[in-house]
Amino acid sequence: MLRHGFRRCAGRVAGSPVLLRGRAALRPVALSCRCDAKVTARKFPLAARFYSSEAAAQDTGAGSQQNDASAEVTEFEQLASLGVHTNLLSTITRDMNYQTMTPVQAKTIPAALKGVDVVAQAKTGTGKTLAFLVPLLQRMLIEDPKLASRASFGTAKSNDIRGIVLSPTRELAEQIAVEARRVTRNTGLVVQCAVGGTQKSFMLRQTQRQGCHLLVATPGRLNDLLRDPSSGIDAPNLAALVLDEADRMLDVGFEQELNEITSYLPSPKEKVRQTMLVSATIPDDVIRLARTMIRPDDFRFIQTIGRDEVLTHDRVPQHLVHVRSWANVFPALFELIDRELEAFRQGQRRMPFKAIVYFNTTALVELAADLSYLRRRSGEMKASSFSIHSKLQQAARTRAADAFRTSGCAVLFSSDVTARGMDFPNVSHVIQVDTPRDRESYIHRLGRTARGDKEGEGWILAPQVTLQSTRRLLHGLPINPNNSLTSSGVKVESGEVSRHHEEMKEFGRDVAACFTAAYKSVFGLGVATAQDKNALVDDVNLWAINGFGLAEPPSVGNDWARQMGLANTNLNFYRGSSYERKTPFPSSFNDEPVAPGLARVHGRPMVGGAPAAASATEEVAEEAALAAEEMAEEAASAAEEMVKEAASAVEMTEQTVRNIEETK
């Protein structure tokens, strides 16, 4: 039924010029569809009205859904006429200083306040978090009016959760929770956050002690809590459920968890709840998910992407750098970073250089972070740098995200965990290394810059071995070739070097162990995107020897090579392998012994293999001191959390005493 409706909508807008340009990124769907709550599910396809972008623009009659009274609400204070509680509105307008709603908020909030289920197509960076929080919180207050008063704070229970927001990533979940706490500060609503990568026991103790009305969570952690009877987490009176970034949740394989979560929640027949599903794109799997979660006879589809809207990937300058070899990738990357930093310092750019550099693998993120750290230590890197990837503990990811948000000139090395939903202000550059996994990944990464009315630009560094795949994947996007980086075209196999190539060789020994993981990770996506597997192997071997000065490429095992489809290539197999190299390594390669492995202390490289024992001891001691400092910082952070927790408990106790006195 929903599939039928969405596809009818899609058919009407397929010819829209803007949608044709962004077709691969954003599936064209209807501007809105609203069905009367009295219509039965069987009659729904016949009774529903569907509007395309063009039809909605032309339909100015009284029957148009876009011209009802609620569509004219543009200021937050006007929401009082729609019943939104004054404690929510005063917080938004006075404390948070939001007056005028964004177009997404103006379309979504009035519709959702009517209590219907909502499927909204909305981009990140458009204010969509507040767009679903306001109706969600208002519905919770309608079902339990006493929660609107701060006097009720401290009465929450962990087994009586009234609202749930699901997010695909830890970072986005924490970001939503922070926003929800800001909005509810003048009410009695208690907000908790449950994500993976944090201590489950700590979260449970806090929730059981403080209670919870609104739970913001990742699907995996929420599913784990609901299926564990001893957790004390339950939602028998659930008023509203929100799925943010629904398409991303399905992309990363959360469909089974989502189905299990709904099985633990009360049936809509037992307890009617409002469901809001927010997604940047509407592919078939999102339609399938919507069919299982929303009420087919009482929902509204809201299209917040206007037909004349120019999308980020259509308007920001984008540059494609043809990088001759993987041996040139990091020299070219750091040349670009140094150049753009200097341009800002010389007054040639208005915005501070604040960049996110995306890699396809965690190992490459770690290698970039280590190299950046070594460059800062040697005085070459003139800006702060941070890294975020899936292997970091949540506390470390949160610290890095918060630090990057508040930084001026800075660089964040990241995997795709920050590509969707995360809000980092004033990002001037998005730099992508190698062919993205898909076209949508490129577009969502690029969307971290030029948010709102800010400027921004995108760069992609494409090694020769995957250049053809990159061009094919991104065909049709306004990306221009750029050959301004000297390091990108240096012939390292002929002995040519740039300053940045010399740096990489200098740091080669210090990042040997980290480089080995990065070397192997390149083959993961590279095997699928490279024009020639043998050429890919030869190129990354060149990277190891001529790029980082290693004596030979990292060794690999037979089983791994077979799994990767690289058994009969020029890989450096472990001794005793049944395979032999197709050709010997060139005689010009460095014959020095391989430097000892690189130990990692809290994400930083511990330098080893220095020629002089005294120098090595000194550097190890320095790194140990840094590690101890970081451990002390973590301990201090944990202590600070305990203090906050204790303060919160005291506040709740005092509030409970006041409640008892008021009752007397």
Automatic annotation (TrEMBL):
Belongs to the DEAD box helicase family. This is ATP-dependent RNA helicase. The keyword RNA-binding applies. The Q motif is unique to and characteristic of the DEAD box family of RNA helicases and controls ATP binding and hydrolysis. GO terms for molecular function: ATP binding; hydrolase activity; RNA binding; RNA helicase activity. Pfam families: DEAD (PF00270), Helicase_C (PF00271). It catalyses: ATP + H2O = ADP + phosphate + H(+). SUPFAM superfamilies: P-loop containing nucleoside triphosphate hydrolases. The keyword Cell division does not apply. Keywords: ATP-binding, Helicase, Hydrolase, Nucleotide-binding, RNA-binding. RNA helicase. Residues 336-498 form the Helicase C-terminal domain. Its EC number is 3.6.4.13. Residues 109-300 form the Helicase ATP-binding domain. It comes from the Eukaryota.
